[in-house]
Amino acid sequence: MCRKIAFVVLLLVVVIVARKHNMAQAAAERLDADTIKQALKVPEIENEGFVERVVAMMNEGKLSRKNVTIAFIKARQRNKHRFQYFKHAMIELAQREGVKLK
User: Fold this and answer.
1) Distances from the Cα of 36 to the Cα of 28, 31, 41, 61, 76, angstroms
2) For the chain, give me the number of helices (H) and strands (E)?
3) Fewer CB near the terminus (10 Å): N or C of the chain?
4) pTM of the predicted model, to two decimals?
């Protein structure tokens, strides 16, 4: 009986994690400026075209889609200051790629 309960709990955890991963992956696949701004609740005063520059550089191949996706997903997991987290993470990740963002 105990094994059945443990199995059911484990199965539920796997399903929940898989669903969460699929939702994050789906959002990351359609990364554009509007998606990022809506998901991170970007205040227009703070944005100053930052999101548009990041997306343009990603589309041009100057920034890797992987790093933009990582910063986006991690920022979405924050309760507060999502845009600020995204911005600082992108500046750091861009520096590692040899690209200056500010």
Assistant:
1) 9, 7, 8, 18, 9
2) 6, 0
3) N
4) 0.69
Output the six-digit token pair for 30.
Answer: 């359609």
Burial of 4 (0-12, 13-18, 19+ CB in 10 A): exposed
Query: Cα–Cα distance between 48 and 35 in angstroms, integer?
Result: 16
What is the per-residue pLDDT across 5-30, written as a single tens digit (0 to 9) for each? 877 777 777 777 767 655 555 555 67
For residue 68, what are its two tokens? Answer: 């933009």
Residue with tokens 């399903």: 15
CB 35 within 8 A of CB 61: no
Give the whole-angstrom CA distance, residue 83 versus residue 51.
Answer: 9
Do 63 and 94 touch, CB atoms closer than 8 A? yes
Q: Residue 29 and residue 10: Cα distance in Å, rounded?
A: 28
